[in-house]
Specification:
There is one protein chain. By secondary structure, this protein is of the alpha+beta class. It has 19 helices and twelve strands. Strands 1, 2, 3, 4, 5, 6, 7, 8, 9, 10, 11 and 12 form a twelve-stranded antiparallel β-sheet that branches. α7 packs across α8. This is Sel1 repeat family protein. InterPro entries: TPR-like_helical_dom_sf. Keywords: Signal.
Length: 531
């Protein structure tokens, strides 16, 4: 009879092997078979060698086999097929099989917009893998294994804004289907303890604490129940739906009788009346009672009018999270998180309808209709920014023109869009899209050296006025003539950015002629010296 320690060690090793075999493919581009274009010294090839070594060591405690492990670094994709894991010796009845695991969108360095997806299909975990609990699990599954036909997770993230959306779905035949999503306006890891350490310079001194406290005293330790690391952000919407496919009928046999009655279910409401938690608990109990009467679906959803701020470090119990988020419970499919447009032909609010067509929110995305409806509103900065995005692929010059308008109005994110659009154009094309050097300039821009410099920088950035490198150089040259070093630096930066392109040399010559005319006609030598 094996000693208890030996049994525990073997069980732990087996569990570790199973976990490694299932999760290591999630590492960036872990491969055992590479495409012909991949270098043997690429990250994918190196990780493949590590994976093979891990599998070899894992076979010391379990049989691990797979049909293929393919990767494509260009797509950031890895596919594992026909994985089979079986315990050995007294654990030989523990078996796991996986038809396919596919991970897409993996990359070593994050891009501005990231999208990754996990697909698992035909996963089968034998009940015997759970030891003494196998019989109880068998009651729930109604068979000798836990079947998971599909398990998918989609994650889309924006590096710049911190926004993210997560969608999950799991289907277990004969048991249940789970489907959920979360749309975050912003989400990030958060550690208040780390913030306090940084603010105190890494020592125990708290700059916001008691000024008369003993500096040699031991710092007060956080309670073990208080999380020191978590997530914080703002949540636009979320939902989680569970649909019964036979699991409840089997579980109902072993549930305590009191939970099958309205009175028994009411005992789950423990929060004081009038509190947020009481309202959440009552909604949950109502949906459970409806489910017991007619098994089907239970949905928890969040649809706040404005993005909901949260920090998981403020929560120590599930009740804290429920009271903060205040989910609503129903026995129906989740409600759409966006307002749906019943009649797409009703253009009484052309701007709103055009934005809906552009983004595909509330109506199927249609770029052609979006352009028709939004182009008359191009003087609106937010609309101009959308138009720049819609034209980005098919007409970079038009996209740049709209980005110029959006940036000049101060629309959020417009300057970044302007820079991206500019990168797709030749110097000649972007100068043609900008205001020429001999254009009229507001008289206030010539009031002083500082006014000249600030106006030049505004034209260079494209904020408050449409970007124009020629006008920026013209104004900066006037300020630089008085010995203003920042303006001289601006001229040099513009020259370095546009290089020796013939189009820029011509535009700069025009700017120089216009500047000389300003200098003489406006008598700037006297004006800027106060004479």
């Amino acid at each position: 009879m094996p000693r208890p320690f030996t049994r525990i060690a073997r069980a732990t090793a087996l569990t570790t092997t199973l976990g490694v075999a299932l999760t290591l493919p999630l590492a960036p581009a872990a491969v055992a078979q590479t495409t012909a274009s991949e270098s043997p010294w690429s990250l994918t090839s190196i990780v493949a060698g590590v994976l093979r070594s891990v599998v070899s060591y894992g076979r010391m405690v379990a049989d691990v086999r797979y049909a293929s492990l393919e990767s494509n670094s260009a797509r950031g994709e890895i596919v594992l097929r026909d994985l089979k894991i079986a315990g050995v010796g007294e654990y030989s009845e523990c078996k796991i099989s996986l038809g396919k695991l596919q991970v897409s969108g993996l990359s070593l360095l994050p891009s501005e917009e990231m999208q990754s997806r996990l697909d698992i299909s035909d996963l089968l975990i034998q009940n015997n893998c759970f030891g003494p609990n196998a019989a109880m699990i068998g009651v729930f599954t109604g068979s000798d294994a836990i079947p998971i036909a599909t398990l998918t997770m989609d994650i889309r993230q924006s590096a710049g804004s911190g926004a993210a959306t997560i969608d999950i779905e799991a289907h277990s035949p004969g048991m249940a289907r789970i489907e959920g999503s979360a749309d975050f306006d912003y989400i990030a890891m958060y550690s208040p303890e780390l913030v306090r350490m940084m603010m105190s310079g890494g020592n125990s001194y708290d700059p916001y604490g008691d000024p008369w406290a003993d500096p040699g005293a031991m710092p007060e330790q956080a309670s073990p129940s208080e999380p020191t690391t978590g997530l914080r952000g703002t949540l636009r919407s979320a939902h989680l739906s569970v649909t019964d496919l036979g699991l409840y009928q089997r579980m109902n046999v072993i549930l305590p009788p009191e939970y099958a009655t309205p009175e028994g279910m009411a005992s789950l409401v423990t929060a004081p009346p009038g509190t947020a938690l009481n309202e959440v608990q009552q909604g949950f109990v109502d949906s459970l009672q409806a489910f017991i009467a007619a098994p089907g679906t239970v949905t928890a959803e969040l649809r706040p009018a404005e993005p909901l701020a949260f920090a998981t470090t403020d929560w120590t119990t599930p009740e804290d999270a429920a009271a903060a988020l205040k989910p609503a419970f129903t026995n129906a499919a989740p409600t759409p998180p966006v307002a749906l447009i019943a009649d797409p032909s009703d253009d009484s609010d052309a701007r709103a309808l055009g934005l809906a067509f552009a983004t595909g929110n509330g109506v199927p995305q249609n770029t052609e209709r979006a352009l028709q409806l939004l182009t008359p509103h191009e003087d609106d900065g937010a609309v101009a920014l959308i138009l720049a995005d819609l034209h980005a692929d098919d007409d970079p010059a038009a996209a740049y023109g709209f980005a110029l308008k959006a940036a000049a109005t101060g629309a959020e994110g417009a300057v970044a869009a302007l820079d991206r659009a500019e990168a797709r154009l030749s110097v000649a094309d972007l100068l043609d899209a900008q205001t020429p050097a001999d254009s009229e300039i507001e008289e206030d821009s010539f009031a002083s050296v500082v006014a000249l410099r600030e106006a030049a920088m505004a034209y260079d950035k494209g904020t408050s006025v449409p970007r124009s490198y020629a006008l920026a150089w013209r104004l900066a040259s006037l300020a630089a003539a008085t010995g203003d070093s920042p303006s001289r630096s601006l001229m040099e930066r513009i020259d370095a950015r546009l290089g020796g392109e013939a189009a820029w040399v011509s535009a700069r010559n025009e700017a120089a002629s216009a500047a000389l005319n300003d200098w003489s006609s406006r008598q700037l030598a006297a004006k800027l010296t106060g004479n």
